Amino acid sequence: MPSKRVLALDIGTVRIGVAISSIEGNIALPLETIHLKVTPDPIETIRTLLEKENIRHIVVGLPLTLDGTQSAAVRRTKQFVADMKARIPDIKVYAQDERFTSSVAENTLMQLDTKGEKKKLLVDSMAAALILQTWLDRRKSG
Fold this sequence. Notes:
By secondary structure, this protein is of the alpha/beta class. It has a single domain (7-141), classed as 2-Layer Sandwich (Nucleotidyltransferase, domain 5). It has helices at 42-53, 72-87, 101-111, 116-141; strands at 7-11, 15-21, 28-35, 57-62, 92-97. Helix 3 crosses helix 4 (116-141). The model has no long low-confidence stretch (mean pLDDT 85).
């Protein structure tokens, strides 16, 4: 039986931030960052995470522009999702507006006095956690 846990992805051109919900499915936690230059198959890495946690739901941040239109980044994200769904057909993928999540994550890390390499390692997974928490909160209230 699939768990209530949900995985979230903040898909970039250099890194993919990954977050996971708590066992109860109500709190988002940063999990890891997939570095695309050193990870030969990021979809396989995601598949492994899904199988390890018995997860069937993924929330993907959709990088809309400020006016809500779709940019090249949205098209790249949608292509990645299509490729992922082709290889992992039993997952359900939800899109969540991710405007400002990376800047909020960076500001949060600055307030926590996280700098340099440590900040680089955390910002993408924290952005994924913000995307996931927004999605989880919206589901609770809706």
